[in-house]
């Protein structure tokens, strides 16, 4: 199997009916970087910047952050990297940061909320990212955006930092793309608003599914209780893909969901053309994409999303479809 996947490394990820499905990988530390060339990934679709903070014993200085971000961009070469700004709080705690005890940390003071309330922290991270991106394209995305006004405020900080760097004679990125993660259900109902502002969206299915079903992703009793291949979740994923197409803006999905081949088939059928997966999943997902007829998969899946009886079983239908093809 491993050898078989390794042989796919340089094969373009194109389905049988000629649809290009870009496969990017999820990363977060220096040790992940060799995977980019080893797997033949199209890029890094999610770089979790909080990991550097989580393994440190104090806030990493701007210079340390800059060093990591530069190394990441160097390792990726011409391939795009999407940096997610600090996503701490919730299940990701920094031992050296004082916070107050929260009754519901997943719903609490975390990610972009913390970033906007502690702008010094977000500003220094953005400064490090913008400096690391000097002379190249830079992609930044904000986690846990629940309201478009949060995105506006975060983007304004990016603009301010750009102005600051320009004034001080630093080299700037060629182009800065700023995107939002779709992982809070409220954003599903502001898709036109967010898409008129953001350069791209990336669905964080781990959190989106957690919040959609109100089922704690880290609680084994409930984490796998609801199937992300059942109609409610699939309809949510479809809404984002279709809104992206309407606005002509790229939409990817970077949760663990896309790392499973059958789930990746469903996402391709819903209109996703870029997925970001764990490094070990690039091979298996690519093998599946090479065997896939997307338009046939759409014909199987889309009617099930119109089901009003509550008995549709997209997982079973897709599994039968995958087996037959
Ligand atoms: C997600 O929520 O799907 C996601 C990619 O972010 P994380 O798993 O880091 O919360
Ligand atoms: Mg998340």
From TrEMBL:
GO biological process: phosphoenolpyruvate-dependent sugar phosphotransferase system
Any one GO MF annotation of this record: kinase activity
Membrane-spanning intervals of the chain: none
Keyword Calcium in record: no
Keyword tRNA-binding: no
Subcellular compartments: Cytoplasm
Keywords: Cytoplasm, Kinase, Magnesium, Metal-binding, Phosphotransferase system, Sugar transport, Transferase, Transport
GO terms under cellular component: cytoplasm
Domain of life from the UniProt record: Bacteria
The family this protein is said to belong to: Belongs to the PEP-utilizing enzyme family.
Protein name (Swiss-Prot/TrEMBL): phosphoenolpyruvate--protein phosphotransferase
Organism per entry: Xanthobacter autotrophicus (strain ATCC BAA-1158 / Py2)
Full-protein residues shown: 427 to 751 of 755
